[in-house]
Design a protein that fits this description.
There is one protein chain. By secondary structure, the chain is of the alpha+beta class. The chain has 2 domains: 22-62 and 103-271 and 319-435, Up-down Bundle (Outer membrane efflux proteins (OEP)); 65-102 and 272-309, Outer membrane efflux proteins (OEP). It is 66% helix and 14% strand. The protein contains 10 helices and 4 strands; from the N terminus they run H-H-H-E-E-H-H-H-H-E-E-H-H-H. The chain has helices at residues 2-18, 27-37, 39-57, 104-172, 177-212, 235-245, 247-267, 316-383, 388-422, 431-435, and strands spanning 65-80, 83-102, 273-285, 296-308. The relative contact order is 0.14.
Length: 440
């Protein structure tokens, strides 16, 4: 039995070694996984459904209402003039209905409920756009951390070769101990950077797993060489598009309409109301009544209209109107603030993408120059016109440039998504453009 227990872990380890690696997932695949299970987005969707149900409740303000009531009582009646001592049962049942004919406050409330549908839809769009950005940010963070670890390990290998070369040259007397110590110091530094990069990759993977609700999600890297997509239009066209489509702006517009309708509701406190009413009731006394000894039954049906005219309510209506007018001014100011913020964010995001594209082009040129400089320093070191530290510095510069270039590419792609979020046009379909740039 003990031998079997020892063999079980070995068997599982062997199966794990020969098991196929988990398949890498594209950005679109991971987004769909996040949309189906992300807690933050599911909370926003539940709030959306609740807002729709709340909006439907406003319809009841203009629809008829009906009620049914019934009762039974046992009564004892005792009188001296005339002398009566009777116990009897009374049974009652009635049904009533009412239909508002003129209630301006109710109609304003109904229109507010319909506005809430638009607000709920805009809120859900905002939540979906935020999910796109969160998935994209986590996705590219993992790719950037993987690149950093890969470049650090490549630099470690290059510095290791330079360290071995410095040791060989020192042994044969063609180099000083300084070269060896400089290379050793740089090697130790790169080892520390490797540990930090490996830990950072673990953290970034955990963040991606949390967003997409998967274990050990494997993002597909970008295909290289990469041609970044051009940015269509100019900054003014992006700002103009935001004026008509941004969900936050739509929410602010809805809030202003709701505030104006609230003022109408407040002013309706001065107006009369008119309702159509109907009722039908049955009263039955099986053992008679205090004055009649025989069982009785009476039916009463009524149909009519009820007019209510408010006269005085302690100035509550006037003060309510003042309150709603102030809230209307607040909603108008909030709308203007939202418009200015959206304009600023759109322009900032647009210039960020343009700047990022310029950085990518500059870093691509810097990468080629850094590679040429490293090759020249290696050759110069071999012929004795360069020292070891020159080679080490060139290696460090090259790998730092590669790291910066990879990060700049991710920033441009993510910046394009953020630009669409800033002007309110971001949709899940926009991930298809980024997905087309991934390696397959």
């Amino acid at each position: 039995m003990t031998a079997i227990r020892r063999l079980v872990p070995i068997a599982f380890a062997a199966l794990a070694a020969y098991a196929p690696p988990s398949r890498a997932q594209s950005l679109v695949e991971l987004f769909e996984s996040a949309r189906a299970s992300d807690a933050t987005y599911q909370s926003a969707r539940a709030q959306y459904d609740a807002n729709l149900a709340k909006a439907d409740q406003a319809r009841a303000l203009i629809l008829p209402s009906a009620s049914l009531s019934a009762g039974a009582s046992r009564n004892a009646y005792d009188s001296t003039m005339p002398p009566v001592d009777r116990t009897y049962t009374a049974l009652t049942a009635s049904v009533g209905a009412s239909q508002p004919l003129y209630r301006p406050g109710n109609w304003a409330g109904y229109e507010q409920g319909m506005k809430l549908v638009d607000a709920a839809r805009a809120q859900l769009i905002v939540a979906e756009q935020e999910l796109v950005i969160r998935v994209g940010q986590a996705y590219f963070d993992v790719l950037a951390a993987q690149d950093t670890l890969e470049f650090v390990r490549a630099q470690k290998a290059a510095v290791g070769e330079q360290l071995a070369s410095a040791k060989r040259n020192f042994e044969v007397g063609t180099a000083t101990i300084t070269d060896t110590r400089e290379a050793q110091a740089r090697y130790d530094l790169v080892q520390a950077q490797e540990i930090a990069a490996d830990n950072d990759l673990r953290v970034k993977k955990l963040a991606l797993d949390t967003v997409v609700s998967k274990t050990d999600a494997q993002p597909v890297p970008l295909a290289l060489p990469l041609t970044l997509p051009a940015l269509p239009g100019d900054v003014d066209s992006w700002v103009q598009q935001a004026e008509g489509t941004h969900p936050v702006l739509q929410q602010a517009l809805v809030a202003l309409d709701v505030a104006r309708l609230e003022t109408e509701k407040a002013r309706a406190g001065h107006k009369p109301t008119l309702d159509l009413t109907a009722s039908y009731g049955v009263n039955r006394n099986p053992q008679g009544s205090p004055t009649i000894g025989l069982g009785t039954r009476s039916n009463l049906g009524t149909v009519g209209v009820q007019l209510t005219v408010p006269l005085f309510a302690g100035f509550s209506v006037q003060n309510r109107v003042r309150e709603t007018l102030s809230l209307e001014e607040k909603a108008l100011a909030d709308l203007e603030a939202a418009r200015r913020t959206i304009t600023q964010n759109t322009r900032t995001a647009w210039y960020g993408v343009v700047s990022g594209q310029g950085q990518v082009r500059a870093l691509e040129a810097a990468e080629a120059s850094s590679q040429s400089a490293l090759d020249a320093n290696k050759l110069g070191y071999q012929v004795g016109v360069r020292i070891n530290i020159d080679v080490l510095n060139s290696q460090s510069q090259l790998f730092q440039t590669k790291r910066d270039l990879a990060q700049a590419r991710y920033n441009v792609l993510l910046g394009g998504l953020r630009l669409r979020q800033a002007n309110g046009s971001l949709q899940p379909q926009d991930l298809q453009g980024v997905n087309a740039l991934l390696a397959r």
